[in-house]
Amino acid sequence: MSTENSTGKSILIAARKIFVLKGFDGARMQEIADEAGINKSLLHYYFRSKENLFESIFVEAFSQVQSNMLELLTSERFLLEKIEMFIDQYLDILSANPYLPAFVTHEINRNPEKILALIRGTGLRFDLFNTQIDQEIENGSIWPVNPQHLIINIMALCAFPFVAKPLLDKLIFGNVQQQIDEFTSNRKVEIKNLIIRNLKKQL
Amino acid sequence: MSTENSTGKSILIAARKIFVLKGFDGARMQEIADEAGINKSLLHYYFRSKENLFESIFVEAFSQVQSNMLELLTSERFLLEKIEMFIDQYLDILSANPYLPAFVTHEINRNPEKILALIRGTGLRFDLFNTQIDQEIENGSIWPVNPQHLIINIMALCAFPFVAKPLLDKLIFGNVQQQIDEFTSNRKVEIKNLIIRNLKKQL
DNA sequence: GTTTGGTTTAACCAAGTGGTCAAAATTACA
DNA sequence: TGTAATTTTGACCACTTGGTTAAACCAAAC
Computed over its alpha carbons, how large is the radius of gyration of chain A? Predict the structure, then answer.
């Protein structure tokens, strides 16, 4: 009955695809069953309800997005180094899962209480990060900045192009694939420049 | 039968609320009717189908978001001035309609072809904007920048905090209203500093 | 071979879903 | 005032939804 079964795994893969693509309200249990190549009853045998199945998917998807953020916040590196690593890793993850940001943001808007309860366990510790920034400002190694704006700026610059991708592809790039690819491949450097220039003191 | 009727208006108001809050798939015609204080049949009398009603709402919502972007792109001002004005106006609009960004980005991901067809009419001209940037770079009044990254950076920094608001409120601000308010009231200055510092040549 | 346990299936169900329709209520108009 | 046109309603419908159930399947244990 567990998800270590091959059937269980194929269900999770199918459910992930459908849920992420269509959202909870747009997803149909029948469609997930079809995608997994099984009977709809079998879905309810493995995961008692749609909510149940969805929660499994969402928790996995969200932890994927935030796993390396934890690393960023708690590691023992200099701030500028941390930030560069984070931007690299974060954009790699999002490129591999381009629909995740839109999925997570939509579901969290649709039902904040429930979704936030699901997230509760995965404790992000921002206080450590804030302390480090304060220290480095006192050191004089970076300009004074507000830690909250800083982290939100980084997340925004990384994630927004994925959240709004269909819109940007058309409005900004006129659906020209070459321009889209060029933008994507320059994005890491662009974000790092913007963020780091604003922090670095010398040069 | 038109939407200038008081009934028609109350339907639009109710539909806007429900659609923006729950998305197309999550919205129920019955709920919209209840919200408008009318019979469900009357909904179909005014707007033949759910799709029809949704399209009216979406087009209006989207044009609201982009109306001042047009102004930015075509007006006869210096780039830096334009950008500052845009950030001010854009954040004002989003503050007045905080759920709009998540709504628009979700629907555009859910059904890009249809939604982009709805937008087709409202022609945004980015070529003018690009030309101006190239000119000012040649003038020497700003550093060389990629116009596409620039405009996406601005949109990202403005819109993302709204798209991800429930998440940020909890994870970054610990649901402390005072911190949320402080962040919001500083946001314009923060974004302008970040963008302008990166463009301006003489301090 | 039969029993036992988990797995898979087809048939089915109650509660919605968007949508229709004819009749009633209201308004416009002569 | 009487009548035509418009607006509003309640009853209704076909269809889809998530979910249930009992029977069939199937491998391993005895």
Answer: 20
CB nearest B23 (choices: A23, A149, A155): A23
Measuring CA to CA, how many Å separate A179 from each of A96, A105, B143?
Answer: 19, 26, 22
Q: Is there contact between A41 and strand C, defined as CB under 7 Å from any strand atom?
A: yes
The pTM score is 0.93
Which chain A residues have a beta carbon less than 8 Å from that of B115?
166
pLDDT tens for B65-74 read 777 777 777 7
User: In this predicted complex, what is the ipTM?
Assistant: 0.91
Residues of A in contact with B166 (CB under 8 A): 108-109, 112, 115-116
d(C-alpha B158, C-alpha B47), whole Å: 34
For each of the domains in chain A, give its residue range(s) and CATH number, in order of start. Answer: 1-48 (1.10.10.60), 59-197 (1.10.357.10)
Q: What region does A140 belong to: left with phi over 0, alpha with psi -120 to 50, or beta?
A: left
Nearest to B17 by CA among B70, B52, B61, B49: B61
